[in-house]
Design brief:
alpha/beta, 570 residues, 23 helices, 7-stranded beta/alpha barrel, 9% strand, globular, 12 strands, 49% helix
Length: 570
């Protein structure tokens, strides 16, 4: 069948990690940036490289790109003159001296090296499993701690990084293969060789995706700089459009929200340009968070397309129907234009996307892909030249799949790349060669890809209190700028620190339905960022900043790092 008659399918992978660095001392409090680099961002590029006929959109959060750069600078400084790296876990990998058994530092490092999927990573490797069993005995029998050696920790450090290694690297890299075969008794030279592989992989991420974009396989897009929820920066009342009864923070608005939202887009474009030497046509607004005001801002900033979850367009169509202004034959599988906003909208098929995120990990790869493609074929039969959008995180799902999703992704690109009725494409390509004109809507109902609301980031008492802390800090920030007490350098540092505090991830994790340990970690990091902001502007942090915000205690699916697009039914 002619390619022009095949139904377009867009796979949009969103790459995002919040800023885990304490900028007061340069220390990374959590290692998730570099671990997802060597496991997921590398694999996702490699699968596309292995299937030249495949196409995809890859969206990067600029703050992730900057953290990758920081890691690479840290590694080079360590190589050049032995300066410690900012990430304690990565710094321990090639360290000449490791903590003594029984010491708090030994125990802390041991626990960090066990933060991996037990079924898919730890238990996959007998040597790693044995080390994990010893660690469990270590926890319950403090009397035997004196008999453990530093070699145990050295081996555990190596296996932690081997466990997190990209599957495509595991299959092709001689250093990784030899370390796996050795299994134990790793030397300092072994650990330093492993660091060399990590550095090489991280250094190759931006160039590999840039090359894929230049080859026409990938469209690169961006999110706002530190991943804030733009509609909430612009107006807390946006949350009431989909949830009229939602409780909002005590502060009626986020001070200067429009200016801050524009700053995140401008700063994000600057970072994107520096890494990829191009201008992004598309913006996956953080968490697919859109409102009519957000659309106007994105259009003013020069973006040609954006996207969200299908609940957002369904809410908007329902409102239009109530106002007797709904377009005929509208569906989630069409592009849209809303009011006078100069930007095209696409919408995630939540059902298809969530099958990848929450269901297919336990299926045989070929069966899973065939089931997914079967659903797409049925959508294609609906007519009206639909556009099928599958949008999800490019990193969080794969740790639940065998071998980091290797077989699933390989089969997905193979089958869709050569399908007779479906064709992989990108949003910019659709705008340049439209198969259907965008459907006009009078107005967009504000919401996100999660449930079509903003309830994941606002409305809960813990989340609202976090917003109030941020609003209070922003007011002091504004006063510091108004009175001219900051130098140009100090103002720049404070502005960027404020941007980190405005990220979406802190509000995501607050709430009793999230795991207690993760809530504790993110609450600590959020407080640290706010305290650093006060330090930047030379104002003492208020006592309220040090009062507990959220306890957590829930057990959400997949640990809470991913959410389905629709709320579960009764």
């Amino acid at each position: 069948m002619d390619s022009e008659n095949r139904i377009p399918v867009v796979l949009c992978w969103h790459m995002h990690q919040p800023d885990y660095q304490d900028h007061s001392n340069g220390q990374f409090l959590f290692p998730w940036v570099y671990l997802h680099c060597i496991k997921d961002y590398v694999d996702m590029a490699a699968h596309l490289e292995a299937h030249p006929e495949a196409r995809a959109v890859v969206n990067f959060a600029p703050v992730l790109l900057e953290q990758i750069e920081t890691y690479l600078c840290d590694i080079e400084r360590w190589r050049h003159d032995g300066q410690p790296m900012g990430d304690p876990l990565l710094n321990a990998l090639p360290a000449k001296s490791l903590p003594e058994a029984g010491s708090p530092a030994f125990l802390e490092l041991m626990e960090k090296c066990l933060k991996a999927n037990n079924e898919r990573i730890i238990k996959r490797f007998p040597a790693y499993t044995q080390l994990a069993d010893i660690a469990e005995l270590y926890r319950t029998r403090p009397d035997i701690q004196r008999y453990l050696s530093r070699q145990f920790l050295a081996d555990l450090l190596v296996w932690y990084h081997l466990g997190w290694m990209a599957e495509t690297v595991r299959r092709d890299n001689g250093v990784i293969q030899s370390l796996q075969e050795k299994a134990h008794d790793y030397t300092l030279e072994d650990r330093q060789a492993l660091l060399g592989v990590i550095a090489e992989l991280m250094a190759g991420i931006a160039p590999r995706y840039r090359h894929l974009a230049q080859a026409g396989q990938v469209e690169l897009a961006m999110s706002p700089w530190a991943h804030p929820i733009l509609p909430l920066l612009l107006s807390f009342d946006a949350a009431r459009e989909a949830m009229p009864g939602i409780l909002l923070p005590e502060h009626p608005v986020y001070p200067g929200g429009h200016e801050r939202a524009a700053w995140h887009l401008t700063e994000g474009k600057r970072t994107f340009k520096r890494f990829f030497d191009s201008e992004p046509a598309g913006c996956w607004a953080s968490e697919g968070g859109l409102s009519q005001a957000t659309l106007a801002l994105l259009g003013e900033q020069g973006f040609r397309w954006t996207a969200s979850g299908d609940s957002v367009i369904n809410n908007s169509l329902n409102r239009a129907k109530a106002d007797r202004a709904a377009p005929e034959n509208a569906s989630i599988h069409q592009p849209y234009r809303c009011a006078d906003a100069d930007i095209t909208l696409f919408f995630r098929d939540d059902g298809l996307s969530d099958l990848i995120g929450f269901s297919y990990a336990d299926w045989h790869a070929e069966d899973a892909v065939r089931d997914l493609v079967h659903h797409m074929e049925n959508i294609a039969k609906e007519g009206n030249h639909p556009v099928i959008s599958v949008i999800l995180d490019g990193e969080n799902a794969w740790e639940y799949y065998p071998e980091n999703g290797f077989h699933f992704l390989d089969e997905l690109y193979r089958l869709l790349g050569k399908h007779s009725k479906l064709r992989l494409t990108t949003y910019s390509e659709l705008l340049e060669n439209p198969v259907i004109e965008p459907v006009s809507l009078p107005e967009l109902v504000a919401g996100s890809w999660i449930y079509g609301t903003f309830s994941t980031w606002i409305g809960d008492p813990d989340k609202n209190r976090a917003w109030d802390l941020l609003c209070e800090a922003k007011q002091h920030f504004d006063l510091a700028l108004d009175n001219g007490s900051l130098s140009t350098e100090q103002e720049l540092a404070a502005t960027r620190q404020l941007g980190l505090c405005e990220g979406s991830d802190w509000f995501w994790w607050f709430g009793d339905y999230n795991p207690a340990l993760v809530v504790r970690d993110f609450e600590h990091l959020y407080r640290r960022h706010l305290a650093n902001l006060y330090g930047c502007i030379g104002y003492p942090a208020p006592p309220s900043l040090f009062q507990p915000l959220s306890q957590g205690g829930g057990e959400p699916t997949k640990g809470g790092a991913m959410r389905p697009g629709h709320e579960a039914g009764p």
